[in-house]
Amino acid sequence: MFESNHTLAIVMAGGVGSRLAPLTRDRAKPAVPFGGQYRIIDFTLSNCLHSKLRQILVLTQYKSHSTQTHLRDAWSMFHSEMGEYIHAVPPQMRTGDSWYVGTADALYQNIDLIRRSNAQKVIVLSGDHVYRMDYRKILQQHDASLADLTVACMEVSLDDAKSFGVMDVDEELRVRDFCEKPSNPPSVPGNPDQALASMGIYVFSADVLIDVLTADHRDERSTHDFGNDLLPKLIRTHRVFGYRFGTDNGSNNFRYWRDVGTIDAYFEANMDLLSHAPPLDLHSDRWPIRKYERPAAPSRICMDAFGLAGEVTNSILSNGVIVCGGVVEHSILSPGVHVGSAAEVQHSVLLDGVKVGDGCVIRNCIIDKNVIVPDGETIGEDPFKDGTRFTISPKGVVVVPKDYVFEQPSRSRNGERKEMHGRHPRSFQGKPRFLNSHASGQS
Fold it and tell me: What predicted TM-score, i.e. pTM, was given to this entire model?
């Protein structure tokens, strides 16, 4: 029988996240906002909460202030007198004079915390994936199979498997081999079209973890990485099993997993939330995702001073959003976003405090925090112009960095703002409108 007080959860949250730049210019990847009112790390921590895991270490490193502030504001809800805790643990150089140099080294530098926890099992998690998962299932399988290490895996097509670390397993799911981004991935027994890709979720028996971390630290040839070093060695010497994610729960919400480590993956995962039947439904009461509740007024859709009504279609609105005479379609607006008169926002993600001026056109964009888009500005329609100012992803998503300052808008001779865009703001190129907007952040 699984008992949560015998398991220590360690969340790896110190990655640089360079492929997600410029969103990671001022924050670590786990602290990047997602889905309007969440941070990416909220999904892993909510999984811990619902899985009855109440002893959690969050290993931070790169630009950790945002992560630590969020842990304080959103996750200060554990009871230390009951043995519960969630601690941010930056590199403390207890074992040397270096920062964390790999996933295994990060754990080794905190090996005393693992020992002092008296945990029987350690589950190692990533803080930068978006998914729902009941960790009790993999912990139960770990015990039932008498495993030393259990690795969570998901079934993917053989073509997609070429981008993952892939497990070669037998009929009992015991791992025979591990291949990093193989050109010819091994298939799942009984399913020749699918492969088992590692999700970066590991359950160790605590004594085994301590032993292998110590041995790896002494190995001068090691890169101190789970996938490159620990996993291949353990397969040869210990009982290592795979765990199939999403096969023991009937809900599609528990089959969705996304690594949002690139701009395109991050943008697509946000857009997934706007599907007719979202593969990850944030409105599900069964497994709510905990977040920081910003003290802000409810969202508002209103008329401007000239009587032009705001319109919102198939979008997520967070606390404090105001759409005043503008049009928002298939977009996610974070807390405090303001969309001005005759502005058009389509297929975009706007983070906290973004102000979109009157008459603006915003398409296929991610706009980071606190950006003020001046009246009449256009983003997402001219790739050449956008490319001289902003990052553009391989799939054409324009990213405006945090606190970006635009040049002053041009003025006509009489000092008035020039007329912006000769089209009515109610027509997104003639596309039909569906009045099924969603408002989040309200009781």
Answer: 0.89
Where residue 367 sits, what CATH number does that domain have? Answer: 2.160.10.10
Q: Which of 223, 243, 272 is the last residue of a domain?
A: 272
Annotated binding site for alpha-D-glucose 1-phosphate: 100, 165, 180-181, 198
Question: Residue 422 above 50 pLDDT?
Answer: no
pLDDT in tens, 79-134: 877 888 999 998 876 656 677 777 888 899 899 999 999 999 999 999 999 999 99
Specify binding-site residues.
100, 165, 180-181, 198
Strand partners, 339: 323, 356
Residue 146 pLDDT grade (very low, low, confident, very high; cuts 50, 70, 90): very high
**What is the tally of structural domains in the chain?**
2
* Residue 359: pLDDT over 80: yes
